[in-house]
Each structure stands twice: as structure tokens, then as C-alpha cells.
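Q: what sequence does this backbone want?
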């Protein structure tokens, strides 16, 4: 390469480097939601979404729906656009982190913003003991694109009974995983969750790898168990029809995981 070509190449590389997006740069919200979800529960892997369920139509008593949002930026804003939900119903926003579920916040009034600093968020619809009318809400992601731990896999369990083996294809689970298993049968019930096999890294307070069980009660997911190593916990009945199994692993030592069933 001659000198002119080298200068041109250096100038070009400099231009590419300075034009490349910088990490942690603030990112504004989308002007309008980019995806629309209309099912009871589901997956929202997007920077914004309109989530509506039975808007203007009826929803059966005791219905539970869980949506999981995995957003690209660090701050998520949720807002209720239209709603026929009653005082005894609720739409709850729950941030997820490597240290577990945070306290849920109820989205109850139109226009109210619930804003959470977490890239992964669960939305839970809890209908009281009477039929109700549907709603529409919106979600917008903004802020930096951090590389903080995030939900790495999830399965929303909606059948009346079922079972789960994790990892699904055998072998060992990975490092830095957060795997989420909301259990919210679409036909209202009180499922009982039982673990039949546990093989996780050992820690005196399960500070390395762990499984947590949360039981929905009185407006929040309450942690009722945390375990690791070979510990099989006592069974848990989700008396209010919803619960969550949350598995997380740290950056070293992986084992073969766990099996559970519920009915
Ligand atoms: C909610 O957030 C939006 C966007 O930032 C803002 O325009 C609106 O005024 C906020 N609403 C309330 C009640 O603060
Ligand atoms: C686990 O679930 C599958 C269907 O998802 C079913 O065929 C199987 O019998 C279940 N196993 C147990 C042990 O319940």
C-alpha cells in the first residue's frame, strides 16, 4: 500500500470509529408502539408494544394472564390507555433481576406511568371473583443498552397441569442464566408445585446458583422458598392461581438442573 492509500484507510477507519453508536447512549422512546399483542399472556421482545386483551369485551372471573417483556434498553414505562377493569382486578408490573423478582406495582389509573429500571419485566393480570371487562396498555423502552444480566429463557405455563425439565435437552445449565417459569393456568385453579429432582451448585445460603419459588398473594409475588444443591423443597400450592419458578446461575460451576411438575 502506498502512503496515500494508508492515509485514506486511516481516515476511513477513524470516520467509522467515531460514527459507530456509543454504548450507554440515551435512546428515546418509540413515537408509537411497534408491536401489538392481543392474547391472554405472551411474549413481548420489542422496544415498545400495545398490549390489549378483550378491550370492550368480557373476561371470566379469576382469570390470570402473564406477559413477559424483554426490552432492549434499560428503562421501561407502562401506561394504561383504556380499561374496564374493576377495583378488585389488577394489572401488575414486576421487574425481574438476577437477585429475584422485585415488588409488583399496580397499574390502576388511566395515564399513570409505572416506570421500572429493568430490562425484563413481567405483567400479570389478576381478575377478581367476578367477570370483568378488558383493557389496553402500552409499553415503551428507553435509555442505555446495558449488558446487565437479563432473563435468558422463559416458558409461560398455562395448562391445568404440566411438568418441566431444565435444561430441556439434558447436559448442564449455563453460566449467568436467569430462567423464568410463570405458572398461571388459563382455567382458574389452585395448582400444587412439586420438585422431583434438584442438582445445582452448592452454596451455604444458595448465593451462587438458586431456584426461588414465588406464590401470588395479596397483590404481589411472595418468595416462599429458595434452594440449591440437592434440596427438594416442600410442595407449594398456588392458592390464588399464580406463581413463578425463577432459576439463576452465577459465572462458574454448572450442574444438571432440575425437574418439577404441577397439577
Ligand atoms: C407519562 O409519561 C409520558 C411520557 O413521558 C408523559 O407525556 C405523561 O405526561 C406522563 N403522565 C403522567 C401522569 O405523569
Ligand atoms: C410431562 O408432560 C408431558 C406433556 O407435556 C406428558 O406427556 C408427560 O406424561 C408428563 N410427565 C409426567 C411425569 O407428568
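A:
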Amino acid at each position: 500500500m502506498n502512503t496515500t492509500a494508508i492515509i485514506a484507510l486511516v481516515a476511513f477507519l477513524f470516520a467509522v470509529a467515531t460514527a459507530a453508536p456509543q454504548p450507554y447512549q440515551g435512546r428515546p422512546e418509540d413515537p408509537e408502539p411497534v408491536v401489538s399483542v392481543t392474547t391472554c399472556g405472551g411474549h413481548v421482545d420489542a422496544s415498545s408494544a400495545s398490549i390489549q386483551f378483550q378491550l370492550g369485551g368480557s373476561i371470566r372471573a379469576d382469570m390470570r394472564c402473564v406477559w413477559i417483556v424483554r426490552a432492549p434498553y434499560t428503562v421501561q414505562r407502562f401506561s394504561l390507555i383504556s380499561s374496564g377493569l374493576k377495583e378488585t382486578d389488577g394489572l401488575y408490573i414486576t421487574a425481574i433481576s438476577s437477585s429475584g423478582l422485585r415488588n409488583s406495582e399496580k397499574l390502576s389509573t388511566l395515564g399513570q406511568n409505572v416506570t421500572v429500571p429493568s430490562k425484563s419485566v413481567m405483567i400479570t393480570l389478576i381478575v377478581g371473583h367476578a367477570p370483568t371487562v378488558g383493557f389496553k396498555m402500552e409499553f415503551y423502552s428507553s435509555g442505555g443498552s446495558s449488558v446487565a444480566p437479563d432473563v435468558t429463557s422463559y416458558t409461560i405455563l398455562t395448562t391445568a397441569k404440566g411438568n418441566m425439565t431444565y435444561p430441556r435437552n439434558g447436559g448442564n445449565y449455563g453460566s449467568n442464566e436467569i430462567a423464568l417459569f410463570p405458572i398461571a393456568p388459563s382455567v382458574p385453579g389452585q395448582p400444587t408445585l412439586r420438585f422431583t429432582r434438584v442438582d445445582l451448585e452448592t452454596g451455604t445460603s444458595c448465593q451462587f446458583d438458586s431456584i426461588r419459588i414465588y406464590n401470588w398473594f395479596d397483590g404481589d409475588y411472595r418468595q416462599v422458598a429458595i434452594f440449591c444443591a440437592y434440596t427438594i423443597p416442600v410442595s407449594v400450592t398456588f392458592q390464588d392461581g399464580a406463581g413463578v419458578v425463577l432459576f439463576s446461575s452465577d459465572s462458574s460451576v454448572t450442574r444438571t438442573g432440575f425437574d418439577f411438575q404441577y397439577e
